[in-house]
Design goal:
Structural class: alpha/beta
Strand content: 5-15%
Helix content: 25-40%
Largest sheet: 5 strands, parallel
């Protein structure tokens, strides 16, 4: 299970790997935008040996001008990953409650941090349970890991770079929020509604199911191509705060676009500066 080439792992393959002498490190990153904290789910039942890692406090920086889920401080991230038992060059598998968003952001964060061998459990915890595999309620106290965080493993966009990408004719900046949010008709979270001028709307539901499962690579390629993504043109993605868009980057990797960039701050960062233009309506609005 080493190497970055396969971003997903199915439950049967993971179950077999957990029987190895030196199994992969399991990170439970269950998370909700609103509602009960993911740790409650972890305590109620998790994959045997899994360690809970909080998306908000361990894998992201503090909310602020950088957005609601900005990049983490590298030293703080390294400390959190080591506390969870992550070891240098040792495989990691992340999973969430099934929609795949938090797990994708965890996958992206570890890859950005330079840890290449990390995969998402396809279908998350529900897929594991549905397969009749064992679960545990035992809290874990892992041996401290020795992972070294080296930022830059995956490309990142800031606001200026996102705007520039959206303005290039053969490039695509994907806005993966729902269509009403993109059009500026509603905005349930951030103070301003609309989208980055030039961004193309491709709601997440068009490339991943509600169970967090992805279609085949050729199907993903067709859906991204329909949104204007070409083999030669640059591509980036954003959402409200960089979680759903991390899942879009994962989908782009599955479709062969391993150069896809994430605008981590996303819309929650874009709107903190009132000078930045806002587009509304169906069209990209360049």
């Amino acid at each position: 299970m080493s190497g970055p080439q396969e971003p997903l792992v199915e439950v049967d393959r993971l179950a077999a790997a957990l029987d190895d002498v030196d199994p992969p490190t399991l990170l439970d990153v269950r998370w909700r935008l609103v509602g009960a904290p993911g740790r409650d789910d972890y305590l109620a039942g998790h994959l045997p040996g899994a360690v809970f890692v909080d998306l908000d406090t361990a894998l992201c920086g503090a909310p602020g001008a950088g957005g609601r889920h900005p990049l983490p401080d590298p030293a703080a991230l390294q400390a959190a990953l080591r506390a969870a038992g992550v070891r240098a060059d040792h495989p990691v598998v992340v999973y969430d409650g099934g929609d795949g968003m938090a797990a994708a952001r965890a996958w992206w964060t570890l890859r950005w941090a330079g840890h290449r061998s990390v995969r998402v459990l396809h279908g998350g915890y529900p897929a594991w349970v549905a397969a009749g595999l064992p679960v545990s309620t035992d809290a874990q106290s892992p041996t401290t890991g020795d992972v070294v965080v080296r930022p830059g493993g995956l490309p990142v966009l800031d606001a200026g770079q996102a705007a520039a990408l959206a303005a290039v004719d053969d490039a695509v900046l994907l806005d993966v929020r729902t269509a009403p949010r993109y059009r500026g008709e509603v905005e349930p979270i951030d103070p301003v509604a609309g989208h980055v001028p030039g961004a193309v709307n491709l709601p997440a539901g068009e490339y991943v199911g509600p169970d967090g499962r992805f279609p085949a690579a050729d199907v993903l390629s067709e859906r991204f191509a329909a949104a204007g993504v070409t083999e030669a043109g640059a591509v980036g993605a954003y959402c409200g705060s960089g979680v759903t868009a991390a899942q879009a980057v994962l989908a782009l990797h599955l479709a062969g676009r391993t150069d896809a960039a994430l605008y981590v701050g996303s819309w929650s960062n874009w709107v903190v500066d009132p000078v930045r233009p806002v587009a509304v309506g169906e069209t990209p609005g360049r």
